[in-house]
Automatic annotation (TrEMBL):
<dbReference type="GO" id="GO:0008289">
    <property type="term" value="F:lipid binding"/>
</dbReference>
<keyword id="KW-0719">Serine esterase</keyword>
<keyword id="KW-0276">Fatty acid metabolism</keyword>
<dbReference type="GO" id="GO:0005829">
    <property type="term" value="C:cytosol"/>
</dbReference>
<dbReference type="GO" id="GO:0052816">
    <property type="term" value="F:long-chain fatty acyl-CoA hydrolase activity"/>
</dbReference>
<feature type="domain" description="START">
    <location>
        <begin position="424"/>
        <end position="594"/>
    </location>
</feature>
<keyword id="KW-0496">Mitochondrion</keyword>
<keyword id="KW-0597">Phosphoprotein</keyword>
<feature type="region of interest" description="Disordered">
    <location>
        <begin position="34"/>
        <end position="64"/>
    </location>
</feature>
<comment type="function">
    <text>Has an acyl-CoA thioesterase activity with a preference for the long chain fatty acyl-CoA thioesters hexadecanoyl-CoA/palmitoyl-CoA and tetradecanoyl-CoA/myristoyl-CoA which are the main substrates in the mitochondrial beta-oxidation pathway.</text>
</comment>
<keyword id="KW-0443">Lipid metabolism</keyword>
<dbReference type="GO" id="GO:0005759">
    <property type="term" value="C:mitochondrial matrix"/>
</dbReference>
<feature type="compositionally biased region" description="Basic and acidic residues">
    <location>
        <begin position="39"/>
        <end position="50"/>
    </location>
</feature>
<dbReference type="Pfam" id="PF01852">
    <property type="entry name" value="START"/>
</dbReference>
<feature type="domain" description="HotDog ACOT-type">
    <location>
        <begin position="236"/>
        <end position="349"/>
    </location>
</feature>
<dbReference type="GO" id="GO:0052689">
    <property type="term" value="F:carboxylic ester hydrolase activity"/>
</dbReference>
<keyword id="KW-0378">Hydrolase</keyword>
Amino acid sequence: ATLLLSRCLLKMVKENIVVPEEILSFCCNGLQGSTSPPRAREPGDREETRGAMASPSPPRNPTEVQMSQLVLPCHTNHRGELSTGQLLKWIDTAACLSAERHAGCPCVTASMDDIYFEHTISVGQVVNIKAKVNRAFNSSMEVGIQVSYEDLCSGKHCSICKAYATFVAQGSNGTKVKLRPLTPQTEEEKIEHSIAAERRRMRLVHKDTLKDLLTRSSRETAELETRDGSAAVPAEKTRVESVELVLPPHANHQGNTFGGQIMAWMENVATIAASRLCHAHPTLRAIEMFHFRGPSQVGDRLVLKAIVNNAFKNSMEVGVCAEAYGQEMSVSRRHINSAFMTFVVLDQEGQPCTLPMVAPEPGEGERRYREASARKKIRLDRKYVVSCKQTEVPLSVPWDQSNKVYLSYNNVSALKTLVAKANWTLAREKEKVRMYTLEEDKFLSFRIEMSVCINADRAFSLLSDLRRRPEWDSHYASTELVQQVDDDDMIYHVVSQTLSRENKPQDFVILASRRKPCSKGDPFVVAFRSVTLPTHPASDIFTRGETLCSGFCIWPESEEMSKVAYYNQATPGYLNYVTTNVTGLSSNFCATFEACEKFLLKNKEDLIMQHF
């Protein structure tokens, strides 16, 4: 039949007879092995997918960008490992493409959060980068980046780092562009979207945090470190200065110098400075949060300077700055960026080696030396409190001025993460009060919610003041404001009516962090977590209790109606109380929340009068 069709088709062509499209298609399909003519698609038919067992894939974030790069010898250093500068260029490229996919216009890198490099990548392995916009604000947006490597021979996959970059959308004349909001779809995206507002807040106060700690550390008269058997290397011997001419291959599609290219040049001079101290080949372990101060363009000269600020036992901090000027005869230079990079030297077993000490120059060198020590303290706080998962952060984290921002971040982000979970199950419902539970590997969490006839802002003001909690919560005996950290964070000493197994009242030292909505649709947040204070150690009178994650979220439903929800990630000592309420053996939760409603309704008029 196939041969007959072919002969008929050939004869029609020779005689200049127009072949109908249906017949031509049928013949072509027949020649390719089809045994039935094509039929017109019916209205209800679905387009066939490849593979009989193809399953529907989850919806993909429209801003998601994936990049895979094979590490070639030209990308590596002398050890055959991927150059960190090259990796930074790839990270910045993927993040920029994701930002522009959402903005629909050119975007520039504004800042990059701390990056901790967990592993090195060897030649022949594949770098996989995934970037997507977590949240869009007015004209800036946060892009989350995940980097992993893949060994093609063994099939092994391993995480390299996770980073957050901030990009700013720019119009044709360089003006800022107002961005449309981003709607998260999956549970992971909802968590990242919610916490992005808290990370933004932390970035905005980062400079003040540094300034505050450095001001206090400058008052201390700490002596320079001494290490037995080590000769100090003058810091001046590690100084590096290099100049780069910005050419078209170094610029992005907007004509500005690629942010990733500037980071790569900075990493290069920083590596040289670190090598001059240790006379070995150092490995970059971390880059501290930094901001781009301004752009540079094709034709600019970039002057890059680096020096070792301080060397600790197993690591060193290198300070790098980039300045730009346009003409060879230019006197003034534009400050583009400053960064602080942490290097280590690894032995054959991959363990950090002991480093020589640094002898700082008098004056400015000593200032940089002491500031490096202060920054190390902040880096440790930030990595320990912010980068860890909630379950990896001990309850008894000491609170002090240097880590207050990061404990506040951890407090609020933990509650927002709990709120964004998807598998909440309705356990009880009594009149207007609903109780939900969430069972996870290590925790049983619960949420109690109800709608209250009160403005959300007023409910937020009343519930964020723990001193008023005993007015409606019978479990609270007394609450004392220990420290007013700032307008949004307070530390309280709470004494509970509940007796412990030792037949003593329980007491708590609680950090209360409150946040107003960052944008429409966000709730008012009041988060609680335990901290320790030297001024309030555990005493024999009480049994010191701890709370891992709890707090209120308040959503406005109308001008005078709000949904108030209380969340608690129950610790072992609290589980029995939770389960008796879940199973209906007790109604304490419902009674307490009903008392909370009466408290809000009773006091909302007082707040109204205070505004007049």
